Amino acid sequence: MGSLLEGRTILVAGVTMDTSIGFATARVAQEQGATVLISNFGRALGITRRIAKRLPAEAPVLELDVTDPAHLAALPDAIREQLGEDATLDGLVHSIAFGNPETVLGGRFVGAPWADVAQAIQVSSYSLMSLAHAVRPLLSPGAGIVGLTFDASVAWPAYDWMGVAKAGLESCARYLARDLGADGIRVNLVSAGPLKTLAAKAIPGFEEIESGWKERAPLGWDNTDAEPTARAVCALLSDFFPATTGEIVHVDGGYHAMGA
Asked: Active-site residue among 53, 159, 175, 196?
């Protein structure tokens, strides 16, 4: 058992499958001594409850739809119900994104309907702020918030409006870092290389992004291994980065730094 996160309590929001970055983060956080809660909602909630049993210690599962104001308002009490009235959070992981693959992904950028674009932005970008705001009363001084992005500095094949949503997420993280810094709360993102997660499988043409990654990444890249990304998230949640906020840490084998 490690001690990087010993005594810390962390909420990992948006865990569906055991192949996800969120699940890997929850596992590594527990291995490093943290108490972990995870969340999901709707039809996926039953899956999350089942895979929670696959963690080193079964984690409490909270029902949380980040687009539902009632869920957000009830979140602090839901956490207190699991951890006690004096509960605090030392870390929050935003592992949440969605874009309708039939309308805003897979080469459907031009002409995408606003309702679906708005949904992608609300779920994938705005929710970082709304989730941070919901748990702010519980966040301890020095707490870390970490979100997950996919390099939004360039246009990718097939990624379309999700790329725009991730650009919004990256900007949102910087503004949150500005506004929460006075409370000692750090806000950072991890930009991972392509991984074979449920979210990636839902993107038509995502294999175009994956192709060539291993060859161009100086360290190589295993698109089935979420642990390097999870370790980076946990490091940012720890007190090893006490003066780092508004940052994007790339965990992509070095791909982002290479030219053609």
From this structure: 159
Token pair belonging to 2: 């490690």
Closest among 117, 197, 115, 218 to 163, alpha carbons compared = 117
Quick one: tokens of 90? 């030392």
Nearest to 138 by CA among 181, 208, 207, 83: 83
Residue 189 pairs with which residues in a beta bridge?
A: 147, 248
Domain segments of the chain as ranges:
9-257
Catalytic: 53? no
Sheet with 139-149, strands from edge to edge, namely 61-63, 35-40, 9-13, 89-94, 139-149, 186-192, 248-251
DSSP structure string for 146-178 = EEEE--TTS--TTTHHHHHHHHHHHHHHHHHHH
Does the annotation mark 159 as catalytic? yes
Q: What is the pLDDT of residues 151-185, one digit of tens each?
A: 999 999 899 999 999 999 999 999 999 999 999 99
Topology of domain 9-257 in CATH is: Rossmann fold (3.40.50)
For the segment 185-212, what is each residue's pLDDT rounded down to a tens digit?
A: 999 999 999 998 766 667 777 777 777 7
Cα 101 from chain centroid (whole Å): 19
Confidence grade of residue 259 (pLDDT, cut at 50, 70, 90): confident
Catalytic one among 166, 196, 201, 255?
166
